[in-house]
Amino acid sequence: MKRTSDEVITEITKFLNGVGGAHDWDDFISIPIKDKRLDAIRIECSDLRDNYPPGKKRQYCSDEGLKRLEEILRDLKTEEARPEPDKPTVSR
Questions:
Q1: N or C: which end of the chain has fewer CB within 10 A?
Q2: Which phi and psi (to 5°) does residue 21 adopt?
């Protein structure tokens, strides 16, 4: 699947805020992304449950896992805010 960083940011944000559709998260973690960097993020998200097992019923992962997901989101947003090296910035 072809996804942009913004789309991955949106999916993670919806999941963290509990506002995604019934199958949005499953679709996100199950369908490979063509961009290798974004696919590595998808894979890490899909492994959260195994790497950070939930402590309560109906929880996707532990609180540590949710913190890791917030870190992933923060890193993605930071990367998006940086200008790309081959794109000049416009000064006024």
A1: C
A2: -70, 170
CA distance 76 to 40: 12
What is the residue extent of each domain of the chain? 5-81
Q: For the chain, state the CA radius of gyration.
A: 15
Query: In the predicted model, is pLDDT for residue 90 greater than 70?
Result: no
Residue 87: CB partners within 8 Å, gap ≥ 6? none
- Confidence check: pLDDT of 41 > 70: yes
54 within 8 A of 60, measured Cβ to Cβ:
yes
Q: What gap in Å lies between CA 28 and CA 81, rounded to an integer?
A: 23
pTM above 0.85, yes or no: no
Share of the chain above pLDDT 90, in %: 75
- Among residues 64, 72, 80, the alpha carbon closest in space to that of 43 is found at 72
